[in-house]
Design a protein that fits this description.
This protein is an alpha+beta fold. It contains five helices and three strands; from the N terminus they run H-H-E-E-H-H-E-H.
Amino acid sequence: MKPMKSSRSQERSNVQLLTGLIMTAGQPSRRQEKVSRVIRESVSDTIANRLNDPRIQGLVSVTEVDVSPDLKNADVGLSILAADERRQEQTFRAIQHAARHIQARLGRSLTSKFCPKLRFHLDTKLHKTLETLRLIDAAAREYKRPEDTSDDEPSEEHD
């Protein structure tokens, strides 16, 4: 029979295990980071150089890739700068339509057992940042003080 651990040492090991899980829960592993980097490069290359869809217009950037801990799923954030919102949506739909082709090319570039299933979403951070900068510029122009002309005018002295 195995001797039982004391409840105090068992509690201590449970606390250490839980602390380790909490500390690593928000941080991706090195493997996740490596797979994320490969996905970013492969998806960017495929969209820029391998898709011949006339619906894809404007500048498409892969802004973020979030890989699940089991490496079976990946959320891919795309930033699309197009002439208008309609073309942006059209480009995004075309990329979603080509997801199988993008997935297949990714599978060829990965050397792992599994190829993560890609889920695309529009990343609007850049658009929101540009809009914020535009609003700041507009506010700065609105509240810009007119130049003081009091230096040019003679001042009246009261004796």
